[in-house]
From TrEMBL, chains A, B:
UniProt superkingdom: Bacteria
HAMAP family registered for this protein in UniProt: CinA_B
Organism phylogeny: Bacteria, Pseudomonadati, Bacteroidota, Flavobacteriia, Flavobacteriales
Pfam families: CinA, CinA_KH, MoCF_biosynth
InterPro entries per record: CinA (IPR050101), CinA-like_C (IPR036653), CinA_C (IPR008136), CinA_KH (IPR041424), Competence-induced_CinA (IPR008135), MoaB/Mog-like_dom_sf (IPR036425), MoaB/Mog_dom (IPR001453)
Entry similarity comment: Belongs to the CinA family.
SUPFAM superfamilies found in the cross-reference section: CinA-like (SSF142433), Molybdenum cofactor biosynthesis proteins (SSF53218)
Domain MoaB/Mog: start-end pairs: 4-171
Protein name as annotated: CinA-like protein
Length: 417, 417
């Protein structure tokens, strides 16, 4: 079983865009037991596309093509496909209706080039693209399946998840790989490995596999069983949850805003924020969840000291005596915000995101986080390094995980060592 | 002149590692006038490597290979290379000395596998790898150059910069590829294409090329000249700027927060936000820029109606009569925020991010944006579709571009049609 990805686009060849589509597809297919054997990136010219289709046809059962579809004139993919599959373009009324309603809903006029998107090769089966105007196209030629999709990542992902992967699984009998991913926050990869080494050894002894997938502020742990032993994977997962409750916040695709939101909903409690160095990012995270208005009232972005005093009732003397980035200030910010926003929980943060503004005493990356809750208040200091964007990202994740632990009554003041 | 990159490694095919090596190489080569025409990613098996070398040989003058070299896996790649170039492995004393000193300096014992790294194909010219133990290898076969490099990014980069690119430039007389990218916001790909079609036709007639690179809320336009005509590219760029000042906000890697921040700095003006559906994301964007405290004081996140009234002084009757998502409400939010935050410019937004909460009159994706400035206030309604995350992203970009236009005195009320 050979699977090939053909990525079309000059922007990929000259390094203007990194080919994350191919990685995402490779990972999704692997998770379903399907291994990609070739990824080929080419220019959107007649010769390059034709050549790639011919080579791919010779060596694969499945060929997934992305890019080269879109309303402007630099796209010739559909024409090449017609020639390759010996067919012609015909109007697809369903696609035309979809494209038309796409523009009507957005209150925008439709152009001739948009109508052209409803012209599809007669020999293909159209895969409905809910997220955009270029449809996916499924072809079969001498036992090889070819699927053409637009290169816009969220359109491609929609087509892969709703149409392509389910159809491939149905068409070909793949070996079933069982995997489950657990999400941790607030502990580095090597510390985590040390903490769970006994458990990991046992897991490997029983024939399961474990992968560490780190990203800034987070480590995902993926347990997998090549023999499809779902029960064993789940029981090791349960053990892990008991071992590291301070760090393990969720499973699979869950996010911290989702997990925290669910807890607040259950408890019928509300949350607000008073943010300095994160500039609103914590609240942006909390409100990224549909239905968050049930537990979110709003927040204060007190970037300047003046606004810390005016909006969050921080005492000017506290700022003078201890500075904006201090335990005293974040505690007053959280208390002021809790009152001003009339919420059960208030998160406050103040830090030096950098790259400028650090000192020996308070280096760039110093962040204070406080949480003022129904029963108690906590505060902690962190050092997140010199990268501005990364410090903001780490602060958001850390603050939300602190809130999760406080709501659940997990002691965050004492590290679990 | 055809150049191909062959990336070897299973981790790339299953999406565990994103192929940033190929992007980096593509960008570096493009900057030197060398355009990559194929990137091929394969598994480290005898068949896959041999097949890729044969195909690449047939269609290229230069083939750059990364990966498949290293103490644990260089067996197979080096053996395939020996077979392909009809040669055998011999000991290279210089490489052996380098590998030995590499371990001596780090006070680590050298293993037999490390000594094997000094065995190189007799037919190649060794490219000295200062950064690691696997050397680069330069082969020539029937007018095609093949270069094999390790896949570790900093080792590959060292070899490319110190050896490969200088040698290629010396060996081949490249035509210089010149490119410039212009960034637009607020106009779809097909509308943009229609608006600039006369200009685009002229550009193509003069032998330049144009690519449309869309992403949510934005379209990048890349002008390129294969003959290195920098002046022609720049003059078409200047014309474009004059044609669509409402949409064209920057060049190359610039971001809207950067562009807006620079304008505010120059004018010595300040900005604040009153955000509902974006939950702080506009302010998070503005404060992502280092030094933004010079023009940012802070913002109000008024997710609930109560906070719209309490923090931004919106009249409760306005909310009752027109609803939270209305022109009347966003204008009052902007005016209230401007006063409360004591800023020169205040952006306010209120919308239905969805996927729930829409009505016939105000469907999901309806967003009102207002800007209250030193001299006047403006407001506009948008329909951004049903995807929550995308609506937030589009709202942030649109609001920042509206602010840019207001600061520059570009009339945003009238569409430039």
């Amino acid at each position: 079983m050979n699977v090939e990805i053909i990525s079309i686009g000059d922007e990929l060849l000259i390094g203007q865009t990194i080919n994350t589509n191919a990685s995402w597809m490779g990972a999704q297919l692997a998770a379903n037991g399907i291994k990609v054997s070739h990824v080929v990136t080419i220019s959107d010219t007649w010769e390059a596309i034709t050549g790639a289709l011919e080579e791919a046809h010779a060596r694969n059962q499945v060929v997934l093509i992305t890019g080269g579809l879109g309303p402007t004139k630099d796209d010739i993919t559909k024409q090449v496909l017609c020639k390759f599959f010996d067919t012609k373009l015909v109007l697809d009324q369903n696609v035309l209706n979809h494209v038309t309603s796409f523009f009507t809903k957005r209150n925008r006029p439709m152009l001739e080039t948009n109508k052209m998107q409803a012209m599809v090769p007669e020999a293909c089966e159209v895969l409905f693209n809910e997220q955009g105007t270029a449809p996916g196209m499924w072809f079969e030629k001498e036992d090889t399946v070819f699927v053409s999709m637009p290169g816009v990542p969220y359109e491609m992902k929609f087509l892969m998840e709703s149409h392509v992967i389910p159809r491939l699984i149905k068409k070909y009998p793949f070996k079933k790989l069982v995997q489950k991913t657990y999400l941790t926050q607030g502990i580095g990869e090597s510390f985590l490995a040390e903490k769970i080494s006994g458990w990991e050894n046992q897991l490997r002894k029983e024939g399961l596999d474990l992968a560490y997938l780190p990203s800034p502020g987070m480590v995902k742990l993926r347990i997998s069983s090549g023999s499809g032993d779902r029960a064993r994977v789940a029981s090791f997962g349960e053990e892990l949850k008991q071992m590291i409750p301070l760090y393990l916040y969720g499973e699979e695709e869950e996010t911290l805003p989702e997990v925290v939101g669910r807890l607040l909903l259950t408890n019928e409690e509300t949350v607000g924020t008073v943010e300095s160095c994160t500039g609103g990012s914590i609240m942006a995270g909390l409100t990224s969840i549909s239905g968050s208005s049930a537990y979110v009232s709003g927040g204060l972005i007190t970037y300047s000291n003046d606004l810390k005093i005016k909006l969050a009732q921080v005492n000017p003397e506290t700022l003078e005596d201890f500075g904006a980035v201090s335990e005293e200030t974040v505690l007053e910010m959280a208390a002021g915000g809790k009152k001003e926003l009339n919420v059960d929980w208030c998160i406050s943060v103040s830090g030096i995101a950098g790259p400028l503004g650090g000192s020996d005493e308070k280096p760039v990356g110093t962040v204070w986080i406080a949480i003022d809750g129904p029963e108690r208040k906590v505060s902690r200091k962190f050092l997140f390094g010199t990268d501005r964007q990364r410090t903001v990202q780490m602060t958001v994740l850390t603050a939300l995980n602190m809130l999760r632990c406080e709501i659940l009554g997990i002691n965050i003041e004492k590290k679990q060592d």
